[in-house]
C-alpha cells in the first residue's frame, strides 16, 4: 500500500515561513536551502516548504483548498493552544468553537495556509 509521507506547502518567503514553523513545531529544519526547507516529524511524516519563486517551481493551481490539522488529546489542549497562538499573534481565521467532531479552531500561517487544531474523531 502506498502511504503519503510528505506534506509540501508552497510559500512566498521560505525564510519567513521557516521561522514561523520552527517556532510552531518546536524544532528546526533537517534541511534548509534558499528555496526549500524540510522538517522531519516524530510520527514519520515529513513537512516541507517550497518557494513559489524557485527557478524550477511549476503550479497551475491557486488558492488554499486544504488544511493541516493538529489533532491533540482533548478539549483542554485545543483551548490552551488557541490562547497560546492568539497571544503569539498568529492570525485566527475561525475562532474556538464546537463542531460536529468536537472543539476546534483554525489559524493561518504567513501564506494563508489553514492550520486546524482539533481532537481526534470519535
TrEMBL record:
Gene3D superfamilies reported for this sequence: 3.30.720.110, 3.30.720.120
Domain VOC: 3-120
InterPro entries: Glyas_Bleomycin-R_OHBP_Dase, Glyas_Fos-R_dOase_dom, Glyoxalase/dOase/EhpR, VOC_core
Family annotation (PROSITE patterns): VOC
Domain of life, per lineage: Bacteria
Residues in coiled coil: none
Pfam families for this protein: Glyoxalase
Name of the protein in question: Glyoxalase
Amino acid at each position: 500500500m502506498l502511504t503519503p509521507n510528505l506534506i509540501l506547502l508552497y510559500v512566498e518567503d521560505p525564510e519567513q515561513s521557516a521561522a514561523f514553523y520552527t517556532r510552531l513545531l518546536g524544532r528546526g529544519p533537517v534541511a534548509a536551502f534558499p528555496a526549500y526547507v524540510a522538517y522531519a516529524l516524530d510520527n514519520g511524516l515529513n513537512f516541507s516548504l517550497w518557494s513559489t519563486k524557485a527557478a524550477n517551481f511549476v503550479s497551475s493551481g491557486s488558492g488554499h483548498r486544504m488544511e493541516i490539522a493538529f489533532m491533540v488529546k482533548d478539549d483542554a489542549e485545543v483551548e490552551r493552544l488557541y490562547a497560546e497562538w492568539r497571544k503569539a499573534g498568529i492570525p485566527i481565521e475561525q475562532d474556538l468553537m464546537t463542531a460536529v467532531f468536537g472543539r476546534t479552531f483554525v489559524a493561518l500561517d504567513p501564506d494563508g495556509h489553514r492550520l486546524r487544531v482539533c481532537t481526534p474523531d470519535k
